[in-house]
Amino acid sequence: MAADGSGVHGGAAGTRCAEAAGAILRGSAVTGRSAFAPELESWTPEVVGELVRGFVEQPDTSSDDFLTKLRKQLRGVSAEAVVLAAELLYLNMLPLAGSTIGIGRKREIIAEVLSLQDRDVELPERFDAAMEGVVLGGMAFLNLRWAQFAFLIRLVGALLDTEPREREALLSDPWAFRETARKVMPDRGGGERARAQYHLLLWLAFPETFEAIANLDHKRQIVAAFADLIGGGSADEDRDLAAIRAELQQAELQQGGGARVDFYAEPWAGRWRPADTEVTQRGWLVRGANVGGANLVPEWLERGFCSLSYRELGEIAPGTPHEEIDRLLAEAYPDATANSNIQQRSQITAFLDRMSPGDLVVTVDPDHGVHVGTVSSDPYYDAADGRDRARRRDVAWARPTSTPHRHDFSEKTQNTLGSARTVSDITRYVAEFAEAAGLGEQVTEDVLAVDATGEVRFRPVTEELVHRLHFPKKWLQETVELLQNKKQLILFGPPGTGKTHLARAIADHVADPAANPGAVSLVQFHPSYSYEDFVQGFRPRQKRDGTMGFDLVDGPIARMADRARQNPSQPHVLVIDEINRANLPKVFGELYFLLEYRQEEITLQYAGEDETFSLPGNLFVIGTMNTVDRSVALVDAAMRRRFAFLRLSPDQPPVDELLKSWLRERGLPVEADLLLRELNRLIGDPDQAIGPSYLMNPDVADPAVLERIWQTEILPLLEDQHYGRGIEVEEVFGLAALRSALGSAPASRPENPE
After folding, report:
1. Whole domain around residue 358: which residue ranges?
2. How far apart are CA 710 and CA 687, in angstroms?
3. Which neighbouring-strand residues pair with 626?
4. DSSP H or E run through 754
């Protein structure tokens, strides 16, 4: 947000966005030539007509992602049409901040579209430099790109359908431009699913006139809060906002301030957007496919309701205090743990108190797909059909021509269906369900604003991480990208190569546990580690009456999967130290399948017949393996296929320069590095080599400290490796022998300059 007095939202980054958009809209629309490839006349009515026929008039209703569909729809069009499509997608993504879609992903999308034609066309540097973005986007930009792309095609067509003089006038008059854009906003069926794109395009084209606000409700709320400054609001939010901004900016100048007014920052945000403001519409997943062994979903659909069982509880009035519900649960389920009852209470209160008429509800029928409806009543209790169906809310279920199924949704949206809870808040993902069921127009702007169904992208490697690890930035970035693409990564190498330290550092970098508690977890495998420890198993527990019972308890990977599923926009990382010390097929069990097929569901060994489990796509696994016992060679083919393997070897980059870099940064002599290199040369086996971390001690330049490290950490390891070979380890690998081979004397500790 601008804090430098700049006249454009987002300061310098916002200015670059607006200038890039202007170069395309005012340049290409007037000259007819491509902004990316000026030798091509791509902005002509004939070229736009190709996109209208190939994309707008031939919608692809398959479950493929947008780019896959676009590749098919652009098949056979001219190079000019492909380049125009790339430029329009550039305008689509340009204003979005990196937290919505990263610069790297923007580049990939543009490059992929440009590759659909044979000419050598790349994104020009001036446009690449503007892609930082300044606006947070939600579902409207990530799942409704087809509608936005079609809107941009229609808009360009409308501009090019005018005479050159009229076109130049349109592109210099913000209100005439807005009127043209408004006329072509309705999509097929008369909907306005491109409205977020419409609002931001106005800002891109005329940043001094319009606000960088994609949410119409936000515009209206701002006008309502500041209407007194302009003598009351009108029916034109954009003109009102322009007038309000002028008044506020003038007041800033009179008070000696120069910063541009930012309606999302204080002191202005507090007037229209209180801190405790919540969305007015929510989305809910309510399970009914296995209620006491019966599938109630067909009955729900036929009779227009959904229900929550807990038949032992009887009627509970909305607004009942939590303490009273806890008491009722304890009486009805005396053997349940306190934690279990707290979870049950949260589901009951969600159904009775948090759910409201107008909310969207999703349910799954294992045989007949995913169903979406709108809550149409307050909760009520009617036991005429049995207590399993008594606690109800009426629902107006959608009746789409074709019922969507699980695989029709994006990976993160699918993951929400894997929740084991009977009632789950899925507000951040419900828009995609609603769109598939034909209820897209019923999704409110505030739900679109909090949507989180976009792709999880890792943040780029930072200089701080490079400095912390002493590894090259390029290598670290490639490693992070390898984890993102494969989702499972194993770092393997001999002792002392920093595998665990690196794994934890990468996990902290991509998941940021300081800001997202619980997003990183570490577990260490050992020979007695089992499936019951790792996934799910029974644990003994003393009941209230003193007798012993068993509870089904989730292991670390099941707990991490649940956390990741509850926050699909946030990466979660499970670090498994010494992963090869356990019997991997035994520990992972049926999870082998899920590691490869993240979108599938399975039934765990100890779960009920109809209880399913999946690994969400935002859960990543980093394992470490020690090669000193050659156990990596024993890892079965199934495991190798599911993990990416990255070797850390003391004699190969990036580990070979690690110790030297670390010593030089601290002004220490490099003798320790020379000794380690000679030691590993004598060992002669990369899998048995010694890594540098043993010697990354700030006192390693002290001969006594170096000797102690060698005698107590390195030589005992070599004794174990060479046991029974008839080798005198001290004579061959001791410091004296190594220094003799190097022709050097022990280094003395540098004098303290002070």
Report:
1. 283-450
2. 19
3. 493
4. none
Residues 664, 637 share a domain: no
pLDDT tens per residue, range 284-301: 999 999 888 899 999 999
Residue with tokens 């690196």: 502
Count structural domains, the chain: 5
Residue 263 C-alpha from the chain's centroid: 27
Following DSSP, what letter does each residue of 586-649 receive, concatenated? HHHTTHHHHHH-TT--B--TTS-TT--B---TTEEEEEEEE-TT-GGGGS-HHHHHHSEEEE--
Q: In what order do the strands lie in the sheet with 520-524?
A: 520-524, 572-577, 619-626, 488-493, 644-647
Q: Which of 670, 683, 536, 563 is nearest to 620 (CA)?
A: 563
The alpha carbons of the chain give a radius of gyration, in whole angstroms, of 31
Which of 64-73, 175-184, 422-431, 602-611 shows the highest mean pLDDT?
175-184
HSE, side-chain direction, 13 A CA sphere, residue 683 = 27
Helix or strand or coil: residue 237? helix
Tell me the pTM.
0.51
Structure tokens at 608: 């009920």
Residue that is written with structure tokens 């991997």 in the block = 584
622-to-75, 461, 487, 561, 575 alpha-carbon distances in Å = 40, 17, 8, 14, 5
Q: Distance between CA 718 and CA 482 in Å, rounded?
A: 33
Q: Is the pLDDT of residue 630 over 80?
A: no
How far is it, in rounded angstroms, from Cα 179 to Cα 164? 18
Domain end, chosen from 622, 647, 672, is at: 647
User: How far apart (Å, rounded) are the C-alpha atoms in residues 255 and 187?
Assistant: 46
338 Cα distance to chain centroid = 33
Query: How far apart are alpha carbons 103 and 40 in whole angstroms?
Result: 26
CA distance 117 to 170: 31
Report long-range pairs for 40-45 (Cβ below 8 Å, ≥24 apart).
40/79, 40/80, 40/83, 40/119, 41/80, 42/80, 42/81, 42/83, 42/84, 42/87, 43/84, 43/156, 43/160, 44/80, 44/160, 45/157, 45/160, 45/161
| Tens-digit pLDDT profile for residues 459-504 | 778 888 998 999 999 999 899 989 988 899 999 999 999 999 999 9
If 0-12 CB within 10 Å is exposed, 13-18 middle and 19+ buried, where does residue 440 land?
A: buried
Among 623, 625, 626, 688, smallest CA distance to 651 is for: 688
Yes or no: say if 563 and 616 are a contact pair by the CB < 8 Å rule.
no
Strands 423-425 and 488-493: unpaired
399 — pLDDT class (breaks 50, 70, 90):
confident
Pair 28, 21: CB distance under 8 Å: no
Phi, psi torsion values for 674, nearest 5 degrees: -65, -40
Give the whole-angstrom CA distance, residue 435 versus residue 472. Answer: 45
pLDDT at 276: 46
Asked whether residue 132 falls in the same domain as residue 219, the answer is no
Task: Look up residue 648 and give its two tokens.
Answer: 């850390």
> Residues 506, 552: one domain?
yes
The 3-state DSSP composition of the chain as helix, strand, coil percent (nearest 5) reads: 50, 10, 40
Instruction: Tell whether 203 and 59 lie within a shared domain.
Output: yes
**Cα angle: 448, vertex 450, 452; to 5 degrees:** 95
- Provide the terminal-to-terminal Cα distance of the chain, rounded to the nearest Å: 47
With tokens 């009887």, the residue in question is 314
Tokens of 58: 């031939």
Structure tokens at 297: 């979903």
Region of residue 518 (left: phi > 0; alpha: psi -120 to 50; beta: else): left
3-class secondary structure per residue, 664-690: HHCCCCCHHHHHHHHHHHHHCCHHHCC
125: tokens are: 């540097």
**Residue 2 belongs to a domain:** no
pLDDT of residue 750: 42
Is residue 561 within a helix (H) or strand (E), and if so which, with residue range?
helix 556-566
Would you say 505 and 520 are in contact if contact means Cβ atoms under 8 Å apart?
Answer: no
Q: What is the DSSP letter of 602?
A: B
